[in-house]
């Protein structure tokens, strides 16, 4: 009990005092996971909308691939990205391994299928006749897509939350491709693992609390938008 | 070509192995209201989607304003923007009533002040002006369909397509809206294709009626022609001809033929020659009933049949009287006339009709 209590008190001290190391780790986590989520939205939404609305040969197979991707183990992605970026690997010349960019790439690969898959589901839940109705009102392809995404906005926000949630809390890939380098690639999850291993429970608890609060605040905000949208 | 806005030729649509639509020619004339009728599953909605350029046929040509339609999105979009479609369910977007009515105008990048003006005009015309700020999800079925109609009319389309827009509504709502829409259509003179499975709606709306049966055009004609002179047994049944008698013409003189039926002979107006197989169509309202002892001598009733009343079914102010005269016949009679006859089920009755009351369909096969 003593251990937990002491850890909690120290953790709050670190947070309230704005410990520079804690702050730097927090901001890097937000930046890396935010960017990875954003990229997965930019590519995943149009692809998901296309797969959700179009009919083409092999569509079922592509959907199975995406659904598998939604459950992709982070360590497998970590391994794959490591090999790609390894000095003698196919993209070794870019010298990206153990950099924040490498973490963004790995997290993008994790979030992309989640966003794509949920967009497919969201598009399929829309009444197929609505699409015909919008075309009948003179919508261009782009206008049709935007209007359908607006119709599915509740499900789309769920896709954003799930995508961000998948990467902010992920550890395996970040550790493998980022290397947990102090002041450079150390993020909330990798730092928590390290501090726990060292027995620095106060630091580990502080980082965990920040991780939880960030995740909660972001989901709270998105849920608020989602439910406000639902009332309109 | 003439004033055809839309012209379809040799259309064929198939889903899988099943051909759902196969028709030779159908035109939509400028400023007309074309009612497309037929039973459920006949291919009416498929035909509408093709004429409204929302679906490409497997084979055939559609011309819009004399120009052949090409099914790539770049050529389709400008044509589609001259058309508006209203479906059976209102299919409103999850936004306000204003947001819905203005949708097509915003797709066309119309300036905001003009949008406001048009939306308020048509919202007013369809009685939904007080709902403009409300979320579409809170509307009743009737209100939602009014919004859907306003959303189409606001576009000032060259051709308006209506796909059974009333079939999901309850009876009173439906009757009110039909009357209103009829007024708007006559006033705006917009070319309209109106799909329905309700034959009474076609009487309200159609300048011409296209009857679709089993994916084919069975008859295209003025409404009264379709109702009085159906070209086939299935069209006759669809337009409410309840008495269809099969027979052979024995002789024909000056347009009056004697037709032999299973139970006897009748005289009907026809050009069919002796030996021809015919179907004699008799609308129930054309049959006159009388007590068994009554005489029709002073009237021009060429056909008087003896029979027995089987069943009397009230329909509004009228009664549907089913009787057996050797073959089953159905007549429509007012409640008052029935009371004056003082007849009841099981009693003998006389049924009479004029030779000119029957419509004769000449059958090709023998």
Describe the secondary-structure layout.
The complex is a heterodimer of chains A (232) and B (366).
Chain A: H1 2-17, H2 20-53, H3 59-70, H4 74-85, H5 100-124, H6 128-136, H7 141-151, H8 153-168, H9 172-178, H10 188-198, H11 201-231
Helix pairs in contact in A: 1-11, 2-5, 2-8, 3-5, 4-5, 4-9, 5-8, 5-9, 6-7, 8-11, 10-11
Chain B: E1 4-15, E2 18-29, E3 33-37, H1 44-51, E4 59-64, E5 67-68, H2 73-80, E6 83-86, H3 97-101, H4 103-107, H5 112-125, H6 141-153, E7 159-163, H7 171-188, E8 191-196, H8 199-205, E9 208-213, E10 216-221, H9 223-228, H10 233-238, E11 243-253, E12 256-261, E13 264-269, E14 277-282, E15 288-290, E16 303-315, E17 318-324, E18 328-334, H11 335-341, E19 348-353, E20 359-362
Parallel strand pairs in B: 3-8, 3-9, 6-7, 7-8
Antiparallel strand pairs in B: 1-2, 1-4, 4-5, 9-10, 11-12, 11-14, 12-13, 14-20, 15-19, 16-17, 16-19, 17-18
Structure in words:
The complex is a heterodimer of chains A (232) and B (366). With 232 residues, chain A is mainly alpha-helical. Chain A has a single domain (2-231), classed as MetI-like fold (Orthogonal Bundle), CATH 1.10.3720.10. Chain A contains 11 helices and no strands. The longest helix of chain A has 34 residues, at 20-53. Chain A is globular and about 65 Å long. With 366 residues, chain B is an alpha+beta fold. Chain B has 2 domains: 4-238, P-loop containing nucleotide triphosphate hydrolases (Rossmann fold); 243-362, OB fold (Dihydrolipoamide Acetyltransferase, E2P) (Beta Barrel), CATH 2.40.50.100. Chain B has 11 helices and 20 strands. Chain B has helices spanning 44-51, 73-80, 97-101, 103-107, 112-125, 141-153, 171-188, 199-205, 223-228, 233-238, 335-341, and strands at 4-15, 18-29, 33-37, 59-64, 67-68, 83-86, 159-163, 191-196, 208-213, 216-221, 243-253, 256-261, 264-269, 277-282, 288-290, 303-315, 318-324, 328-334, 348-353, 359-362. A 6-stranded mixed β-sheet of chain B has the order 6-7-8-3-9-10, with helices on both faces. A 5-stranded antiparallel β-sheet of chain B has the order 13-12-11-14-20. Chain B has a 5-stranded antiparallel β-sheet with strand order 15-19-16-17-18. In chain B, α5 (112-125) packs across α6. The longest helix of chain B has 18 residues, at 171-188. The mean pLDDT of chain B is 90. The chains are: A mainly alpha (232), B alpha+beta (366). Chains A and B meet through α6 and α7 of A and α2, β6 and α4 of B.
